[in-house]
């Protein structure tokens, strides 16, 4: 979208395209700010003949977006709250450009949709609308299906049912309806943003071979020489509907090569921010107790690799962790399952109940707390 007509005056309102950028059947612009109503009323002429401001909130209105030269775009516009307006137009570049240019000339500020979502005023959007705006970011069938259910008001209906049960005196039943959703926004966020799983370990432990097995394609360079990986390699994949990004790191050891030292520094920084660290140990070498002590500060899952080369590791009951062969693929599915079980404790079994929004999570927690006092 061109910003050639951006006004030099301070922005009166903000807007963003919330559907994916590119040619499409329909494009949606979300406009935020009370002054936008006046601007839209100037250019949008509903076919019903009434001014746009006379239509009630949540009413879908069809009409024409008029230009100064007498041409127009046919649009569907809805005022979804006092300060939020949704404009739906043809998804071709010309229509989007025409509406965008008019809004810019009228004092609007064009933002990325992420920037628009972060505005404080955005917190006034209803939960279902916030989830609807997340739909373009879903990359798995599981995430899209669940987001569509929530965008259609499923969670609000659950709350209404729970409150009805409370009013009928069935307090425990009401709480049971809501409790599966409580404290789940931390998980729902990762249906949109992938989990970060860092694969770390000593040099030549087989990290690169393992990441190739985990994602199912050749992503990392595999070499028998220790220290081949000197940078961070990122490999996105999907595990049972959950987006996961595996990050292959440089082997952690002391060294004097400047590039290798930089790679190890990147790896250590990443360990501190990872959702999970997959520590790969070479089963053909002794376990280092100092390693165990060094890992206590991280969310850790230890995996013994090179099962195919270590006969003793196959039979020894003393190795308490997962065992895998990155060469043959034996044990890879067990590792993937363990990763999800660790990231999603208690979530995987039974119907999936998660929230996409921390504010809704807090609201449900407050309702449960109030029920407990009634």
How are the elements arranged and paired?
Elements: E1 13-17, E2 26-32, H1 35-43, E3 44-46, E4 60-66, E5 72-79, E6 84-90, H2 93-105, E7 108-110, H3 113-118, H4 127-134, H5 141-151, H6 154-167, H7 171-178, H8 185-188, E8 195-201, H9 207-215, E9 233-239, E10 242-248, H10 258-273, E11 276-282, H11 289-294, E12 300-305, H12 311-315, E13 322-323, H13 332-343, H14 358-373
Parallel strand pairs: 1-7, 8-10, 8-11, 11-12, 12-13
Antiparallel strand pairs: 1-2, 2-6, 3-4, 4-5, 5-6, 9-10
Helix pairs in contact: 4-5, 6-7, 7-14
Give an overview in words:
This protein is an alpha/beta fold and 374 residues long. The protein folds into three domains: 13-124, Probable tRNA modification gtpase trme, domain 1 (Gyrase A, domain 2); 132-184 and 353-373; 191-343, 3-Layer(aba) Sandwich (Rossmann fold), CATH 3.40.50. It is built from 14 helices and 13 strands. The strands form two sheets. Strands 3-4-5-6-2-1-7 form a seven-stranded mixed sheet, with helices on one face. Strand 4 and strand 5 form a beta hairpin. Helix 7 runs antiparallel to helix 14.
């Amino acid at each position: 979208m061109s910003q050639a007509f951006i006004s030099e005056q301070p922005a009166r309102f903000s807007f963003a395209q919330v559907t994916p950028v590119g040619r499409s059947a329909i494009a949606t612009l979300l406009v935020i700010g009370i002054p936008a109503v006046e601007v839209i009323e100037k250019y949008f002429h509903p076919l019903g003949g009434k001014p746009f401001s006379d239509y009630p909130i949540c009413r879908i209105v069809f009409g024409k977006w008029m230009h100064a030269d007498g041409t127009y775009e046919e649009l569907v516009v809805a005022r979804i709250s006092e300060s939020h307006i949704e404009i739906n137009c043809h998804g071709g570049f010309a229509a989007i450009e025409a509406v965008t240019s008019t809004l810019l000339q009228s004092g609007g500020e064009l933002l990325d949709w992420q920037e628009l979502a972060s505005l404080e005023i955005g917190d006034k959007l209803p939960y279902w609308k916030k989830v609807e705006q997340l739909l373009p970011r879903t990359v798995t069938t599981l995430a899209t299906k669940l987001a569509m259910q929530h965008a259609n008001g499923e969670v609000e209906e659950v709350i209404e049912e729970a409150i009805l049960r409370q009013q009928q005196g069935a307090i425990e039943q009401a709480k049971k309806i809501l409790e599966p959703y409580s404290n789940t926004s931390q998980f729902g966020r990762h249906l949109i943003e992938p989990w970060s799983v860092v694969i770390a370990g000593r040099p030549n432990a087989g990290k690169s071979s393992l990441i190739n097995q985990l994602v199912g394609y050749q992503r990392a360079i595999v070499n028998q020489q220790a220290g081949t990986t000197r940078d961070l390699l990122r490999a996105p994949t999907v595990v049972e509907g959950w987006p996961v990004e595996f990050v292959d790191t440089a082997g952690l050891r002391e060294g004097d090569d400047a590039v290798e030292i930089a790679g190890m520094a990147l790896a250590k920084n990443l360990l501190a921010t990872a959702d999970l660290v997959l520590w790969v140990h070479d089963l053909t070498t002794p376990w280092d107790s100092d390693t165990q002590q060094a890992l206590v500060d991280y969310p850790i899952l230890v995996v013994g690799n090179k099962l195919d080369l270590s006969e003793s590791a196959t039979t020894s009951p003393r190795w308490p962790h997962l065992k895998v062969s990155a060469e043959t693929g034996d044990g890879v599915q067990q590792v993937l399952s363990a990763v999800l079980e660790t990231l999603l404790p208690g979530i995987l079994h039974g119907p999936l109940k998660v929230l996409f929004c921390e504010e809704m999570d807090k609201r449900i927690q407050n309702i449960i707390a109030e029920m407990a006092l009634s």
